[in-house]
Design brief:
Belongs to the ABC transporter superfamily. The chain has three helices and two strands, in the order H-E-E-H-H. With 65 residues, it is an alpha+beta fold. The protein has a domain at 17-58. A hairpin with a 2-residue loop joins strand 1 and strand 2 (27-32).
């Protein structure tokens, strides 16, 4: 089953997502698995965005299914 969720709740996204798509000005700027996205974002814009959410590092990561 596929579900698309749009959120600014980064801890929630990290906990439940299989893939993260980061959009900047309506364009997909980056897509990756949650662990890679949150630990090593590939774009400067994603890095800047995630700096606002330093608490996400301490939040639960997705459990293996």
């Amino acid at each position: 089953m596929t579900m698309l969720i749009v959120t600014h709740e980064m801890a929630f996204a990290r906990a439940v997502a299989d893939r993260i798509l980061f959009m900047d000005r309506g364009i997909i700027a980056e897509q990756n698995d949650p662990e890679t996205f949150f630990s090593a974002p590939q774009t400067a814009r994603a890095q800047q965005f995630l700096e606002r959410f330093s608490y996400v590092e301490n939040m639960p990561k997705r459990k293996a299914s």
